Amino acid sequence: MQQRFFPVVLLALMIMGSTACNNDNKPKEDPASTTNSALAPPAAMDYTVVKVYPHDTSSYTEGLLLHNNELFESTGREGFSKFAKIDIATGKPVKEQFIDKSIFGEGITVFDNKIYQLTYRSNKVFVYDLSTFKKLAEYPWNGEGWALTHDGKSLIASNGSSNLQYLDPATLKMQKIVGVTDNYGPVNNINELEYVDGFIYANQFETNYILKINPESGRVVARADMKDIFANGGKVFNEAQLPDPQEDVLNGIAYDSAKGSFLVTGKQWPYLFEVKFK
Fold first, then answer.
1. Is 154 inside any structural domain?
2. Burial state string for 189-203 with b = 16 or more CB within 10 A and e = fewer than 16
3. Is residue 130 predicted with pLDDT exceeding 80?
4. Is it the case that residue 27 has pLDDT exceeding 60?
């Protein structure tokens, strides 16, 4: 990822060709160049910051989720990739599992008491026991892996394109593909995913946006611009706080069903923000 997030020049939503959820180039689909006037643009999704927690700046965040009131995070980059259970009060791991140093880890989800973990270009999906973190299985994966969630029946994965891939959790065989679109056409760089109350929330990599997607149609129905989240959380953004300002972009969405709020962060950010979308 080669995008400076705050407060320098932000990439436009309609960028053609970009990098991926890491520092390598990834292929893209070209979005339509003109607006389809028959389709309304996504609604603006306002938010308020409820609370701010510390976040470990060594965590190159690829996935974030809450399960049974416990926070889990997966991180990327070869040699540093892991998934961990996080103490939200400190931002530090209380239990963690590193993967092979040659592999770039990507998004995770918890399904049926198992942790599923994508990998970037290693063409593998790993499955672990939720309690012990013991590796249970390994599946082949065709192409790049970016982000992962589930709807209670299927795993839902992204690969950096405009497509969401629905997978059988038992076999990881493809069930269907849903293309994500807005009034301009296909929406690329679909990243970190969270399924909430019949909608999919996603980071759009290399932008400030969190997208709310109708999973049946693939339409982006609402969009939150998070460019001012530091200021809205009462924090002064300082690039010196980021280990790699060029790449430390917005990435990470977890839903707290008990509070009706979301936890949002970025790669190697110093903060984890609890927000409520309006």
1. yes
2. bbbbbbbbeebbbbb
3. yes
4. no
